[in-house]
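Onboarding guide, step 5: your first structure request.
Type a short instruction followed by the sequence, for example:

Predict the 3D structure of this protein.
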Amino acid sequence: MPELDQEKLESLKQELAKFKKGEKVEKRSRTTALGKLFDGITKKIQGYQAESDVISFLYSRFGPHEGHADSTARRKYVIDKLLNYLKEINLLSAKKKDSNMISIPLYDIRVVGELTNIIIIHGIYAIMPSDILLPLEKRKLKNFKVPTAYTKINLNFGIPILKDVLFTFTEIFESESDLKDLILVGTGFTDALSIAIYFTVYTEPTEYQQYIDRLEAQSSTYQLLSFYSILLKNCRTNRAIAGFVSSLLSKQLLKPNGVESLIDLALGLREDEQVDIAKLNTIVQVLLTSKPKDLSLIDYYKNIFSQIYGMLVLVNRPLMNTILVEMITVIYKKNKRIVADFLFSDVWNNLNPDLRKDLNVSTDDSIVLTNEVNLNNSFNVCLSISRSLNSSDQEIMNEFFQPIILPLWYYANYQRSKQKDYTIVLNLIKNVIILGDSDYFIDLILTNLIDYQLEWTFDNGENLPYIKFNTKESKTSKENKILELFNKIDFNVETFVNLTSKLNDSDINHTNKILIATLNKLYSNTALADTDIPFKKIIYLKLIQSLLETFKSEIEGSPSSLLIFANTYFNQYFESVKSKSKLDIVKTEDSDDEDEEEVLFDGSGPNGEGEDGITSMVPILEIISTFSLSSNSEKEQMESLQNTLGTNMEYIPKSIHQVCEDIIGIDIKNITVKNIYTGFNMETVLKQINDPTPSVRVYALDKLTNYTINPKSEESKQVSTKYTLNLLLSQLKDLEPFVYLNAIKNVAKVLSFDKSFFSYVVELYSTSKKTIDEKLRMGEILTKFISSHGKVLTGSHIKEVINTCIIISRAESKTKKKSADNDDLRMKMSALSILGTTCHECGYSVIPYITEIADLVHGIITFETSPELKRAAVVIINDIVSSDNGLEIIKDYGEKLQILLDYISGNDHDLLVCQLASATLDQIEESFNSKFTISN
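The system replies with structure tokens like these:
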């Protein structure tokens, strides 16, 4: 940093000496043009706060005037003078390219506020109809001490003033200045927009619509949605204005960020509010019913779902994606075709060109069917949707992925062949199989394991893969095709075994499903009936061999499915052999025994596979011969297989004779097994809870919760309720919103099932060493539980939760020692929210604690500096008085709290505190006026 020379140092001291403590701003000498302007404005308007007739006072200050002007002319003169001041400030505060300095000092911001507020009150509110403006009493801003009394004048006389205000404010908002930044998001902008709306509806639509467009261009979609929503509520009685504002509101949704802004606004995401999934129904209702009149329904839905599609592409926004997928689910349940036609179809067409109506087969491989960006985006949408669906959404999962599961499978193999990361694709397919119709998807992939005769193929672009026409397919001879496909068999089988391994890590039952499905394919006539694909049998044989080698221990540990398959196969096999035997004996009555034996086994088994086919069963039978039976069901299946083999030994080929005898020789009578509940496997649940995919983790949490609250005897359960509760609570630290939101839901279910754990959760919430985020989520659990069970909570539970919330809200020293987190503002807000819910839901049960609650609320509103805590305290009063018999509960403190609400509704600097206090007073008067009396 350069050193100051003595001359500059003395000059700086002289300047700083002017700013003595307690010295008024207007007494300081100012040398800049802007500073001198503010000095002049301050002298002109000084003292207006004490005047009852502000316009006359300022008119005299802006004089001298010739002649006598009427009240309207005086008003126009004063407002024009104030508007000219704003124009001069705007000009002198223009932004400079080479400087980031703000030209309007902090002590002059007050002057700007006073100018704009005088203009708004006496130049707009004194003229415009009240139902076209936001209620003035709800617009109290910090340091807004301007008297709000004004004299209403005839609208027709005031129209020239309104035009002046509109033209000047629009000019300021379209400039680049510090003044614009100062008033754009606050006083002035919404008022100018209200004027433009009025003139558009009642005067010249064409002329003034441009002002709406120009003003909207200077604001954000979020701010406009917020303003139009508030204005619409206020102007409901004015049908013309309400209809026009409603159309403006609808048009905001069509902007590129319209849907996202609506979600932000409705769920309070920008204020970091707790996400209330219940509000999604409101958002969906708005989206489905807000089509502008001049737009077709098809174009409207295309726009809305195009925005949703674009947001789903951004996979690194888990909270937004969770909200979007939940919205899609709600819409899907209302109308499946809307979601399929306007969202799913875009993904289907990009990933599976066969579905496209405009697809014309070409021999030109330079024609791109799906470019790099579209392919990547569609895949990202698949990821986002699959990560935020749970087991209850299986219908959506099935419909969405059915047309594209095979292209995804081929995509995984392509990426692997190019040594690219293909595991993300396999993980996606794994999720679809787990959460969707697993039998169907497994069968579909097995049937089409090799991409054979596709008209399109993947290729590498400059940065990412894309899809093009498969011209190589049409030019390759049949012999070369077969050679090429044989080369693919080992590769794709290996990829499928990798997929099976991922499924096995999640649930061994899927491994059994795949093995049985493959065996059924191998030994089924229908599966191998396609004469154009003679090598399918080789595919299934190789796959079975790989599965048995890779998952031998898992298959041996879960033999039920394999035993069922073996029983079915051999019953069909022996039935087929016996039928063929009888037919052949009739034809060969004169043949000797040796010839007869040859005839018996020269044909086919149940599906025409002959002795070579049944010989392929040897590895399966060898595994069965080593099974350790663990249930009565498995014991019965083994016994059935032994009987089937034992009574048909004469028809068993020599190649499998020995292994069949080994199976028959198993002594199952002396095997003792216990009947266990096989519908739930805790080991599988634990695997899935640690799965990298959020949707699979939620699937496991749901399964564990449903098992725990299932009305079975405690003795038959594999896990205790407390174990389940702790496991669910441990998921509150998950970074994925989809997981922790579902964990909250499931903990509330467990508490509903066994209310004895309520105190346990309260204790963890207040004194545990868990992170603040985990505790805040526990707070959401308590709020959710109390909201639905407050009426039946015991006195001890109510006492415990109220005392805990009061202690955290006050952050008393003893509690601080236990958990310093309780001094965190978020914890205090959470505790006050729980306290308010308890007061609202528990009725007369809170009377023993009402003194402490009232003292707490009074203390926060009176002494607390945080506006957030003040708002929460006012909400508690509202929660009490809006509950059943609320005023009887609070009657001893009614007068004290009402006086406090009256005061802060008109004097607090925070707008929301004022609004909440006014709303609470309205609630008292409207709902309980007949019961509520204040003692004098």
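Each response can be followed by summary notes, for example: The first helix runs from residue 6 to 17.
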